[in-house]
Write a structure and sequence with these properties.
Blueprint lengths: L1 H9 L4 E5 L3 H7 L6 E5 L4 E3 L5 E7 L3 H9 L6 E5 L5 H11 L5 E6 L2 H8 L8 E4 L4 H17 L10 E18 L8 E7 L2 E6 L14 E6 L3 E4 L3 E4 L8 E5 L5 E19 L4 H11 L6 E4 L5 E4 L1 E2 L25 E4 L3 E4 L8 E5 L5 E5 L10 E7 L5 E7 L5 E5 L7 E2 L5 E2 L24 E5 L16 E2 L6 E2 L6
Parallel strand pairs: 1-2, 4-5, 5-6, 6-7
Antiparallel strand pairs: 2-3, 3-4, 8-11, 8-15, 8-16, 9-10, 9-12, 12-13, 14-15, 15-18, 16-17, 19-20, 21-22, 23-24, 25-28, 26-27, 29-30
């Protein structure tokens, strides 16, 4: 039993239910771990350590028991439904009753699978479960399910892309570093701003720096006056945070989770404000202040201006949409061939700064370009296979990302002409004898004969361009390939 309690406490459970016979164990185990002990007597009354009633256990084994449990929904506190013989139907009936009642319904489960049935009954589920088991594995499985459920049900925020209109030094301010009891991943941070109407996603210090080690538990959140997003759709001032406070950690995709504050460090530091400042003014201000003090404002598409104050330090970063990189091609796996000048090919793994490659457009026009840098990273890949008119099959491996696109011929679409009535037809009628003035034929805008399709949207049957060649030509001489692709 102690192993079960240990697993429960380690999983975040804060309450344990003891019978009269096991009450001495509660006193003993509370010296080893911090949890609230509740006690149940012979008639099912549940009391806290002070003897106050907090709930009632009811065995549901018949229709009369179910009706009695439904009547108890009007009473405050917890009703612990113990339906050992038939679980789903009583759970669904009582969940429907308790949804509009003052009481809270808990279900007794003997396994993690049974607990899941209770928590998902009628989609709303019970308010919680009482897990009755001697197996710590069941406790850990239930904890994993609850963590997954919390992550899937977390609020997803829909960001607006705001254009930074200026960055202005403002001098020394009291800023808050929020150190969490959780580790943050790249892309995660906190929502902070001078006004609650618009909060900036301030990145954590999880990224490596040439000056200091990463601190993946820390967010340098800004000045003491700023708002920060908290759970349950609430906000708080940074100055209000303390050890034990809960804040919201949000990633670049808008996914959120709750984290506990371990400590807050309030120190006087040079701050930066982003706002409507010209580059010339900014450069002059930096020269006058030695770059030590900096305010940052941004403007959303509706014309509203928003701001936040941040410490002027390279470890303080704001998260935004990824900018286009017209200099980059996400080319594929290291084993792949790439076309080089002088009718040669090379392996992608051979490329380095200074290598020459061939850049080709959709019309087949080619020019030479010099490689500035090659980044080799482990990423999820997608195998793309295609078949040419002669029945030959070809393939390549590309990263499974929407920014990776293949070029092919644009799909033909039947053209339609819109009449005055707004209905689609295939041609315009000749001028009428009544003298009615007809609209001129629509002007057709020339469309490119090619299209780029992301590999994440590629479907069998679509067409892409391929360059047919005899084989590898590292020396400029064609070498017939005998590799069979399966």
């Amino acid at each position: 039993m102690q192993a079960v309690l240990t697993a429960a406490v380690e999983s975040g459970c804060s309450k344990a239910l003891f019978s009269k016979d096991t009450k001495p164990l509660a006193d003993k185990w509370q010296q080893l771990a911090s949890f609230e002990a509740l006690f149940i007597d012979e008639v099912g009354t549940i009391q806290d350590a002070k003897g106050s009633k907090v709930g009632q256990r009811m065995v549901v084994a018949s229709k009369a028991d179910l009706q009695a449990a439904e009547a108890a929904a009007r009473q405050p506190g917890y009703l612990v439904m113990d339906a050992t013989d038939w679980k789903v139907i009583p759970a669904e009936n009582l969940v429907a009753t308790f949804q509009a009642s003052e009481g809270k319904l808990l279900g007794v489960a003997t396994s993690a699978a049974d607990a899941r049935v209770m928590l998902e009954a009628l989609e709303a589920g019970t308010a919680g479960v009482v897990l009755r088991t001697d197996d710590p594995v069941q406790v850990k499985q239930l904890s994993a399910y609850l963590a997954q459920r919390e992550a899937e049900g977390a609020p997803a925020y829909d960001y607006d892309a705001a254009k930074v209109t200026g960055v202005t030094p403002v001098g020394m301010c009291d800023r808050v570093c929020v150190d969490l009891c959780s580790l943050l991943r790249p892309g995660e941070g906190m929502l902070v701003g001078s006004f609650a109407r618009a909060l900036f996603l301030v990145h954590s210090e999880c990224m490596e720096s040439q000056y200091i080690n990463s601190r993946p538990f820390r967010v340098n959140a800004g000045a003491v006056h700023a708002y920060i997003q908290a759970p349950n759709n609430k906000t708080a001032y940074l100055s209000e945070l303390k050890s034990g406070s809960e804040v919201l950690v949000v990633d670049a995709a808008g996914r959120a989770r709750t984290a506990v504050v371990g400590r807050c460090k309030v120190e006087t530091r040079p701050m930066v404000r982003a706002g409507r400042t010209s580059a010339v003014e900014l450069e002059q201000t930096l020269r006058n202040t030695g770059g030590a003090k900096m305010l940052v404002e941004a403007e959303t598409a509706d014309g509203m201006r928003h701001s936040t104050l941040l410490q002027n330090a390279e470890t303080v970063q704001l998260v935004g949409p990824r900018a286009s990189r017209p200099f980059r091609v996400n080319a594929g796996a290291v084993h792949a061939y790439i076309q080089a000048p002088n009718n040669k090919t090379a392996y992608l793994s051979e490329l380095k700064s200074g290598s020459e490659v061939l850049v080709v457009d959709a019309a087949g026009r080619a020019r030479t370009a010099v490689v500035g840098r090659c980044k080799v990273e482990t990423r999820p890949m997608m195998l793309v296979e295609a078949e040419t008119a002669d029945g030959m099959r070809h393939s390549t491996l590309l990263q499974n990302a929407e920014t990776v696109q293949l070029v092919g011929p644009r799909a033909s679409r039947p053209e339609a002409v819109t009449s005055r009535e707004g209905k689609a037809g295939t041609s315009s009628s000749p001028p009428s004898s009544s003298g009615t003035v007809q609209e001129p034929p629509p002007q057709h805008v020339a469309q490119p004969q090619w299209q780029a399709v992301a590999v994440t949207e590629l479907q069998p049957g679509q067409h892409v361009y391929v360059l047919r060649q005899d084989g590898a030509r590292h020396t400029g001489i064609s070498i017939q390939e005998t590799i069979t692709e399966k």
